[in-house]
């Protein structure tokens, strides 16, 4: 497989971002409904049914696709919103749904067998055996692989060829096994799995204490920035903590993933699609990042060296990493 | 059905003879009906305890306890799969899946599902039961109403962790070795230095989390002792104690006493506080609040 056939899957949190992504060269836009059924359940973000209908028309008219992320875990007391999200996705004609919950996968497979089912990164399927289970039980067509894997692990899974693979190449980096992390709800009562939020802004407070800016999440100090230091958002796993007598970014530095240099390797491994994180980002960001990734994918497809176009100003903390894909990161 | 106390898998890297003696004492003295053994955090630790399995299993079974084989919380590479296959190769045991990858091999035969698999709703629980899951330990962040609705299903049996640090996250990366300035592949078993986990404090010096190899746990010990009555009323019959470096035999006796209505929850609570010393207790998840809270 060549990079020419690799699909570029891009985020949209608003109709404006969807159009920006399509115009900048996205093959596919992924998005979520405006409720707890998706893992970016932020105020002012996401799509109504009408927004989706219009977005589908815009993308399909230009030969592009739209995927709907329904990738949180349905509440036991009321799984209605999740089921209706799947039903509406089928009725409106989205090109695939991105699911993480076993019960919801079973529902989609039973009620909408013709609707393509992709396994969300939130299912954290990190080994070919896990994919075997989801293919056999629910007929998934594609799996989005965890960001915790190394390139050689991605290659091993893609080479099995049981299912299409999609990997993250740019954006936020989750250092834990995705969909299996309750750090946020330990501190705030809300997690990606239950409410579609991680370290929610509603629980963030910035305080100035002795000339330092203290970033708190719930009742806990997650970081402290000296005067002159550029402050960051207190995402729990990107915080500074003390362990073994040292104050460090114990889990992960405040950096973003930029795996553009690895695109030729992903193509050679048979990876089917490349994904950009960031449904919470604005249209200008989306346009710039999608444009840069489009160039990188096209360059790889024609064997040209990747452009060194700087995107670091857009990254979290202004720094980028190739993440776990390069084993040294571990 | 009489309430069942389960001892969850030992999560920490202890010297192998201490690990063995811990289980021997559980076999001889702890009023628990079911005991999980198995290295679920890091496959590199397994060779140390494996030579003791036969003796530990024999002692537990001689004491009339069910032995469940727990398998890795995150299956990423072939060393994790080897542990899973090792458990499957042992005849006559219930195997507990902690990663969906294990379900690929366990479906179709009776098995247990641990708290690391995302069982958040009835449709998922029913699907797991159809695949052979006879019992499911629910994820730590499920609130009381959800637990109660799951426990109302005819199958599977629902188990709830009622003591021990809440397992909050797992990663392919080892923060324990990172904290010691080592790489995961050359970790020199940094996790062995911290038999109850490496304390992770905030910059204000507050205890917050504990790192155990690739696993991140709460600093507080989860304690649903006062909630046992409500759990039983909702149909939960299985209660899991997760081992910590405290007197787990005494602890099991306190829970047993409350379950058998020989001891008031409040009395037992005070005894648990004395046992665990300065470590705070938490129950917030169960009450739909921040997990760290004590409601």
Radius of gyration of chain A, in angstroms, nearest whole number: 19 Å
The N- and C-terminal alpha carbons of chain A lie at a distance of 29 Å
* Proportion in helices of chain B: 25-40%
Strand order of the largest sheet of chain B: 1-2-3-4-5-6-7-11
How big is the Rg of chain B? 18 Å
- Low-confidence parts of chain A: none
**How would you sum up the global shape of chain A?**
globular
Low-pLDDT runs of chain B: none
* Main beta-sheet strand count, sense and barrel state of chain A: 8 strands, parallel, barrel
In which range does the helix fraction of chain A lie? 25-40%
The class by helix and strand makeup of chain A works out as alpha/beta
Largest interface, C-beta within 8 A? A-B, 67 and 71 residues
- What's the number of extended β-strand segments of chain A? 15
Average pLDDT of chain A, to the nearest integer? 91
Major sheet of chain A: order of its strands?
Answer: 1-2-3-4-5-6-7-14
- Counting H and I runs of at least 4 residues, what is the number of helices of chain A? 10
* Beta content of chain B: 15-25%
Note the run of SSEs of chain B as H and E. EHEHHEHEHEHEHEHEEEHEHHE
Overall, the morphology of chain B is globular
Quaternary status: heterodimer
Structure description:
The complex is a heterodimer of chains A (330) and B (295). With 330 residues, chain A is an alpha/beta fold. Chain A is 31% helix and 20% strand. Chain A has helices at residues 15-23, 49-61, 80-92, 102-111, 128-138, 151-160, 183-188, 192-195, 263-269, 283-301; strands at 7-11, 28-31, 65-70, 96-99, 117-119, 142-144, 164-171, 204-209, 212-217, 220-225, 241-243, 246-248, 256-258, 273-276, 320-321. In chain A, β1, α1 and β2 form a beta-alpha-beta unit. Chain A is globular. The mean pLDDT of chain A is 91. Chain B is of the alpha/beta class and 295 residues long. In chain B, strands 1-2-3-4-5-6-7-11 form an 8-stranded parallel beta barrel, surrounded by 6 helices. In chain B, α1 (16-29) runs parallel beside α3 and α10 (248-259) packs antiparallel against α11. The longest helix of chain B is centred in the first third of the chain and has 14 residues, at 16-29. At the A-B interface, α4, α5, α7, β10 and β11 of A face α5, α6, α7, β7 and α8 of B.
